[in-house]
Amino acid sequence: MGFFAFAQLDEVYHRVKANALRNGVPGASTVLIFVSPDADALCALRILVNLLKSDCIAHKVVPVAGYTDLSEANEDHVEANEELRSIIMLNCGGLVDLTEMFSLSEEMTVYVCDSHRPLSLQGLFGHDQIMFLDDGDVDQMSDLREAVEELEFAETDSEADENAEEEGSDSEASASEGENEDPTEEDEVGEVDEKDDEHRKPGKRKKPPADEAMEIISPPTKKVRASERRRRRKQQQRLIAEYYAEGAYYGMSVAGIIYTMASQLGRASNDFVWLSIIGLSDQYLHDRIDQRRYLSQVETYKDEVARFNIRHGGGDENDDIDSLFGESATKSGPGSAIIRNADDHAIRCDDEFRLMLLRHWTLYESMYHSSYVATKLGIWKERGRQRLTNLLVKMGLPHKESQQRFTEMNITFKRSIRDKLSSVAPRYNMSEIIFPSFCKSFGYKGVVSAPDTVYALTALLDWGAEWITRHSAIAYSEGMRPVSSRLGRPGGGRDETSELGTGGLAGVGVGTRTGMAAVAMRTGDSIHDDGNKSDEDDEDLAEEEQERRKKEKQRAWVRNFYVAYDALDSFDILQQGIQLSMNFQRILVRTGVSVLEKKLTQTLRTFQLAVLTGEGLGSAIDGSGALTDENDFSLFGRSPAHLGRLAKFLMDAFREYRQKDLPLVIAAFNTVADAYLVIGFTGSTKGGVVRKNTFGPAFQRAAQRTNARIRHDSFETSVMEVRKEDLTDFLESLQLFMQ
After folding, report:
1. In the CATH scheme, what is the code of domain 599-739?
2. What architecture (CATH level 2) is domain 1-140+248-307?
3. Long-range Cβ pairs for the range 655-662 (8 Å, 24+)
4. Where are any strands of DSSP class E within 576-702?
5. Predicted model pTM
6. Domain ranges of the chain
7. Which GO terms describe its molecular function (predicted)?
8. pLDDT at 313
9. Quick one: which of 215, 300, 219 has its CA closest to 263?
């Protein structure tokens, strides 16, 4: 069996623990964890690491951004590692046959916890050393399992039949040769009856016995069986091909799966609940699951929250919203503050607005930069911006209040926002502007919602180390303790300020990134040519510069990963991520508005296309000093996460204002790689159903047809890097393979 059923996930941990104890070498690192760079996997890692640390199981964490990283990690951490017993994959590895990628010894077992679909059927059903953590999908794949097993043994059966036919042919040939042998030779060996030879009439053949007659008609029966096997084989191959051709989609969040495992072990906690909620929110906010699945999971987590967070005293249904905004749940006075204590880490169920980072922005900016509101109102047109102003007027909010930071608004207006927005929004086709979510208290410091946490983690994964480093320098100059001094690694809490500032690694393990998902910018000094170098020296310098950039990019990405990891339990770092996310969102909306205003998209037969070359749009961020000297489009050309969010923004706009509801292909030029980062995005329908993404197989076929130079290294099948010269031919060919 190649998987653990959803009700038996605790068996995974028991096996990992038993293998670690059975190793017998004190302090040996028997567990290796590969984790992809997304908020969901980050939360799953935090839960798993806490479980391993509580049992004193030595482990190593290796962040990986693509399959190139996995191949390199195999050489560095798996191959010839005699101590290694368990390899755990978090949101990676489920789409390929890992036995071909890893050099596994007999003692090693790979446990795959991946939300990406479709899964590799060969890895799922073909190997005992590859074990998947099932979220319920695999139990419903009995027909596919039967198909894989039949095809696996079909070749063996065919070889056996061929051998049998060859043996039969040999025996017939031997019998024929025996009839033509010289009688004298037969007498010499004593194998022929002389009387039978005398009575045998030449030219006549004896009528075969009944048994021999059956043998004569048996060959057609073999042909029928072979034909049936071929028909069955084609049917099974077609079933498997249809499974892969359905397109990419997502299963349960990996944080949710690891939390379920912890719960079955009887070791669930309030912190684990919060981490799994963040994983669920990450999927929902990035259109990986539809609203129906999200609401179903929310109901489950409401029960978990109620189990770990017992509320004392009475209150009404608005208590959670008031406490989230920092006001008194008892409403004893207009200026009263909620009573908190340093140990308050409670999680509360809360209705969330589809407004981007509302608690950290002004109401107007939050609505303007919200993809939901911006695309519904059409803010890329003057009429759309006027509609936004009219909406605020109909809510009865003075202009001054809407331009005030939300936390500093008049409490009377702040309390009325929920009711007024709920009544006015449907007039502007925004009936789903409120959705259920959760928030968590961080003691005296404040409260953060799950969506805001997702936005912050996503931003930190892209640029966290650079942002923290620059703001640490500002903090030092102002005499404050820098945030980076609190950064640590999953296994410890020592000061990482010096390492973070000098390009060191703040975390456990070694991670590399050579795929197009690398977004961290180069921070070192450039190499200057003094004009006296030869051509060979210039080539050597160019190679050295390229290698140096590659290493710097790898170091920056790993630092980003561990900054985001530390933010999971650090309110201060999380606030830095929120500020960074606000800057990224400004870029996104500004770029999306420019694309729509300048009509940089075109509608083709099977999809919509947007190619971003982006010249003359100015720097990505103004005076904050984080992303200076960067063009808006160059940022998207190096970040699949943010290019995907831009694609979602454009798709939402197209769905509202265009008749054709077609998927989108968006390409952004990466000046460093001299190539285009291409993403195929299907999004959701007007009914809120998330469509399966069929761009992955289409990308591969289009590249093969045109011999385009591509790089398909991401764990996301719909993300690809195409050389600048090959983009036109690639896109023309892509139209033929999209249906």
Report:
1. 3.10.310
2. 3-Layer(aba) Sandwich (3.40)
3. 655/375, 655/683, 655/685, 655/686, 656/375, 656/376, 656/378, 656/429, 657/378, 658/603, 660/603, 660/608, 661/685, 661/686, 662/603, 662/604, 662/606, 662/607, 662/608
4. 601-603, 608-612, 664-670, 675-681
5. 0.81
6. 1-140+248-307, 599-739
7. chromatin binding; DNA replication origin binding; single-stranded DNA binding
8. 45
9. 300
